[in-house]
Structures are given as structure tokens and as C-alpha cells.
Amino acid sequence: MNTKAPSLTIGAVARRVGVAIDTIRYYEREGLLPEPERRASGYRSYGEGAVTQLRFIRRAKDLGFTLEEIRELLALSVDRQRGVKAVKRRAEKRLAAIEQRIVELQRVRDGLAQLVASCPGHGKPEQCPILRALSDDEVAA
């Protein structure tokens, strides 16, 4: 019976997770993934744990977490004492930041919609309200 865990190449891991090979190497350099074992040929050799960890990183990035926050989440994911509570606090903080960003984007959208509505779409460039707003010294809030 073979008890050795299956060995995956970096390309196989990248395909399974849906990331680029360079992304995996980057996460290794950043310390988000442990250095993989090397085969006799020098090629990287990964186990299923790397696939799981990369999926975690990818999903956390999709939720807007920074690499530093992901590093913290990975550390907390094995912390039996304070892990879940601390993860929730970080997720709440990320949610608040996203909600603030939505408010900012809605303000930008409203301002741009006003400019688009006020522009006739023809005439001299110096009379275009969009170009005037972009060139104006004062920043519209």
C-alpha cells in the first residue's frame, strides 16, 4: 500500500485552483504558502494542503482582504483559543471598509451622472462641463 501523499506539479495546482503559476510563486515569496518540497529534478512538488490553502487565499482576496489580512487569517485559522473571534472581528472590519467604499463610489457615480446629464455631447471642448470639471482647480466634493 502506497502511503505517500499525491505529488502535484505547480502547473497542476495552478489549474486546479484557477490561478497563474506566477501567482503561486508570489504567494510563496510573500510567506502565504510554505516552500514546497523539491523533486530530485528540482521541480516543486505540492500536496493537497497547498491546493486548500491557495483556495483560501483566492477566496479571501475575492472578498477584498489584503495580503497582510490574509496572512493574519491564515494564522488565526489554526488558533484554537482566539481564532474564530478574531476572524469575525477582521471580517467585520473588512465589511465596514467595503460599505464605506460603496458610499464613496455612489457619491462618485452621482457626480459623474450629473456631469454626463449636463453635457450636450457636441460643441466646443472648452464648453464641455465634463472637461471643465476635470480641468478645474477646485475639486468637487
Automatic annotation (TrEMBL):
- Residue ranges annotated as coiled coil are 88-115
Gene3D superfamilies in UniProt: 1.10.1660.10
Any Pfam family matching the protein: MerR_1
GO MF entry, a single one = DNA binding
Keywords assigned by UniProt? Answer: Coiled coil, DNA-binding, Transcription, Transcription regulation
Ranges for domain HTH merR-type come to 7-76
User: InterPro entries under this entry?
Assistant: DNA-bd_dom_put_sf, MerR-type_HTH_dom, MerR_fam
Question: Among its keywords, does the record have Transferase?
Answer: no
PANTHER family found in the cross-reference section: HEAVY METAL-DEPENDENT TRANSCRIPTIONAL REGULATOR HI_0293-RELATED, REDOX-CYCLING DRUG-SENSING TRANSCRIPTIONAL ACTIVATOR SOXR
Name recorded for this polypeptide: Putative MerR family Zn(II)-responsive regulator
Q: Which organism is it from?
A: Rhodanobacter spathiphylli B39
Organism ancestry: Bacteria, Pseudomonadati, Pseudomonadota, Gammaproteobacteria, Lysobacterales
